[in-house]
Design a protein that fits this description.
The complex is a heterodimer of chains A (427) and B (260). Chain A is mostly helical and 427 residues long. Chain A is built from 16 helices and two strands. In chain B, the strands form three sheets. A six-stranded mixed β-sheet of chain B has the order 6-9-10-3-11-12, sandwiched between helices. The chains are: A mainly alpha (427), B alpha/beta (260). At the A-B interface, helix 8, helix 11, helix 12 and helix 16 of A face strand 8, helix 4 and helix 6 of B.
Chain lengths: 427, 260
């Protein structure tokens, strides 16, 4: 029992000296605000950066483009940004899950196009003239099944997802071409269904925007308070009430400022609401359910997960199906936003944007680290940079180079912070 | 110190093709005792442990657990009996915190859906405290930030969370420094004090003599000695490991195959 006193770390690294941090959590009733801040700073220094780099990046982007172009920080451009990022962020949610289990899916852009094309073909008037909701359901089912098929090859044949989905990239782009050339000679089909066009082109009323903002802030406050209360009831240390209050106020200010700003223009886009619902749902699944926990475990150490009785193949297949589902939703939103599908749907820099959004948002390419909200943060960065460069009228080549450099920067932050974590882990 | 018999294997044999990995081995662990299992490479230690853990069945022999004759067909069945193995690589997910690792695959849920974090965190903290593991800053710390000794402690704590009765530790002190080896050996003793049966496999005789009550020596797939620590010394154990009398001398071909 001589080791009962505080055990010095062998290498003497930033081991905390505060007496309140030495013993397991059971004996500490509540954290102090200072202790909370100190722990947070330790985590950042240890390489667990969380959303910090993104917030810094967004501020830098806003300042730089705000100075370079007067139109960047206008309310018009803000709502445009919200419209542009919604589909990419929706698609990136699926990619976050795939990256979390340490896999990658290179076929997402073209699978989303398959979804958009299937939906568009099914709602053509009288041929077969399906109702909009049934067509969307069919499109999402198709993309989910595609995800399942690809995951079966990956898990059962043991082929790396990189290769399977690279083949998928080619196959599904071919399928888009085949479907399109069979029904049209112009290469484009317009969507006239007002429900579907409305998904990504309508706006909430001003009051609707504020109600939505209140729901978001209220929901956050409620979930934080309930968590803290149940932890205190269980005799565990909880987040200090002051910190929760500060976070709620901070979120409230940002949310209502955003709604106010959007309302100066056309209002909050419905696409943002759709994105928000999926973000909330999948965040809950990833962070609060055993399934989500198993996803992280498979990404962190598949062997540990297997020995713990988790069916690793089942988790992988479910994740690829979730990805397929979100890719279908994203494909529908893209088609809706453009009011059409074309032979070139899913091409261009869409794939790059999706994966870059997930990675820039803080999802590790090494698996096991990241949050669903990364899809939102990363897509915001990508969309703001694109929007800024558009306003400045930069040529396509320059834009690719800059976007590529931003992606490289995000991957470097990921790799370096992983190294920092590993260095600390070798204590 | 030593209580009633917890695990009793008698006449265990196991062959892989032409290689007789285990021949007529007896192995017993009592409640509240630490049994050291030693032997040279290829002596059959891992084969014996994996059979008990349900990785594969033995060809011959009987296993009695708590007096009942049992057949263990899978790791899951072993766990249901209360047999847990902590393998050398520990099988922890670095990206998850201590609590998540300890409950991995056996999470507690509320409303049939949501992780019951407070309950799991309390139970994890209680288990760690009962093993006097006090060097962790927080049970919410990620495993990647832990030292080798702390990881071993978490892996052991994970194995005793489930009403386990027998804990088998495979080379728990390999790759650990002096201070951390000390911590792990103390932890092993505390497991026995809680009336669990403990098996410790180690190449390091010094570590085995530090914590074991009895020592079983395997050589070429046969049990060549069962010694009480208090009545033996390292020399005698080394002799048994390298030149212990074999009850059955395998044919030359077999013998080479086992040694290979």
């Amino acid at each position: 029992m001589t080791e009962n006193t505080q055990q010095p770390q062998r290498d003497g690294t930033p081991a905390p000296t505060g007496a309140d941090l030495t013993i397991g959590a059971a004996s500490v009733p509540d954290q102090t605000v200072a202790g909370y801040a100190r722990l947070w700073w330790q985590r950042v220094r240890g390489g667990e950066l969380g959303s910090l780099p993104i917030i810094v990046a967004l501020i830098v982007i806003a300042i730089v483009f705000g100075i370079l172009d007067d139109a960047f920080l206008t309310e018009r451009n803000f709502t445009n940004l919200l419209l542009q990022m919604a589909a990419v962020a929706t698609l990136a949610i699926g990619t976050v899950f795939v990256l979390l289990i340490g896999e990658i899916d290179l076929s997402v852009a073209y699978v989303s196009a398959v979804g958009g094309v299937v939906m568009t073909l099914l709602i053509r008037t009288d041929n077969p003239g399906w109702p909009w909701w049934l067509a969307i359901l069919a499109a999402v089912t198709v993309t989910t099944v595609i995800g399942l098929l690809q995951s079966i090859v990956i898990t059962k044949a043991g082929v790396p997802s990189f290769v399977v989905t690279l083949a998928g990239l080619l196959i599904w782009s071919g399928v888009v071409l085949i479907l399109m050339t069979q029904v049209t000679s112009t290469g484009t089909i317009r969507i006239s269904d007002e429900w579907i066009v409305g998904l990504a082109n309508n706006f909430l009323s001003d009051a609707g925007g504020y109600i939505l903002g209140a729901l978001v802030v209220g929901g956050f406050a409620l979930s934080q308070t309930l968590t803290a209360r149940s932890r205190r009831a269980g005799g565990l240390e909880a987040k200090p009430t002051l910190i929760i209050a500060l976070q709620v106020v901070g979120l409230g200010v940002v949310t209502f400022a955003a709604v106010y700003y959007a309302n100066l223009d056309r209002g909050v886009p419905t696409a943002t609401v759709i994105l928000g619902v999926f973000l909330a749902f999948w965040s809950f699944v990833a962070a609060r359910t055993p399934f989500g926990r198993h996803v992280y475990a498979v990404g962190g150490n598949p062997e540990a997960a297997r020995r713990a009785g988790i069916s690793v193949d089942r988790i992988r297949m479910l994740v690829f199906m979730i990805n397929g589902f979100m890719v279908g939703v994203g494909g529908v939103m893209l088609a809706s936003r453009l009011r059409s599908v074309a032979t070139g749907s899913g091409g261009g820099d869409l794939l790059l944007s999706i994966i870059a959004a997930a990675v820039i948002g803080g999802t590790s390419l090494f698996g096991g680290t990241g949050r669903v909200v990364a899809a939102l943060l990363g897509a915001t960065v990508i969309a703001s940079i694109n929007s800024g460069m558009n306003l400045l009228g930069l040529p396509q080549g320059t834009r690719f180079v800059i976007t590529g450099l931003v992606l490289l920067g995000a991957v470097l932050v990921d790799a370096l912070s992983k190294r920092a974590r590993a260095a600390r882990g070798l204590a | 110190m030593a209580g009633e018999s917890l695990l009793a294997c008698t006449g265990i044999s196991k062959a892989f093709g032409a290689v007789q990995a285990l021949y007529n081995v007896d192995f017993e662990v009592r409640r509240g005792e630490v049994m050291g299992l030693v032997g040279d490479n290829g002596a059959g230690k891992s084969t014996l442990i994996k059979g008990i853990a349900g990785i594969y069945p033995f060809d011959e022999g009987e296993i009695r657990f708590e007096g009942e004759s049992v057949r263990i067909h899978s790791p899951r069945e072993a766990a249901q009996l209360g047999i847990e193995v902590v393998y050398q690589d520990l099988a922890l997910a670095d990206n998850l915190d201590v609590v998540s690792n300890m409950f991995l695959g056996r999470e507690r849920v509320r409303n049939g859906l949501v992780l019951d974090e407070p309950s799991m965190e309390r139970a994890a903290a209680t288990t760690l405290a009962s093993l006097s593991v006090t060097t962790l800053r927080s049970v919410r710390q990620r495993v990647i930030g832990l030292s080798g000794g702390q990881r071993q402690a978490v892996a052991v704590a994970k194995s005793v969370m489930w009403n386990s009765k027998l804990v088998i530790l495979d080379e728990p002190t390999a790759a650990l420094g002096v201070a951390q080896t000390r911590q792990v050996l103390d932890l092993v003793r505390r497991l026995a004090e809680q009336n669990l049966g403990v098996v410790i496999i180690s190449h390091n005789l010094h570590d085995v003599f530090e914590c074991a009550d009895r020592i079983t020596v395997l050589r070429l797939g046969q049990q060549v000695a069962l010694l009480e620590r208090a009545k033996t010394n390292q020399q005698e154990v080394v002799h048994a490991i390298t030149a212990g009398a074999l009850q059955h001398v395998p044919g030359m071909v077999d013998s080479r195959a086992v040694e290979a």
